[in-house]
Amino acid sequence: MTPIAPVPPVDEALKALASGSGPTAPPAVAPELRQQFEALMKQQTNVAPPPTGPNALAAVIQNQQSDIDKVQAGAQQFLDDAPNMSSMEIVTSGMALSHSLAMVNMKMQVATSLTQGSNKSLQTLLKNQ
What we know:
Elements: H1 10-19, H2 31-42, H3 56-81, H4 87-128
Helix pairs in contact: 3-4
């Protein structure tokens, strides 16, 4: 295993940074580019207003709620019909209900993961500002 090379003294780097002669000194900017940048920053551009309709999160929540309502209605229908079903029909209906419930659960888990990931990204972005 190769040892890690020692780090050069920090004092030399700080002196080079303070004098502006080191490799970390920013390159000089042409005055015309600086003026062009300042002119662009002073311009006020019209930005379209945010959409007033439902946002993406509201649409996801609404879709998830409708899926949950369908599964609840299917479960209630299963409970209502179970006394009049044969054992084979009960097993088949139970499997279909379990499948529907698993699909809704998976969609909820994916939506939750995406929301948490977006939240963490936004927090990191705001923290770095």
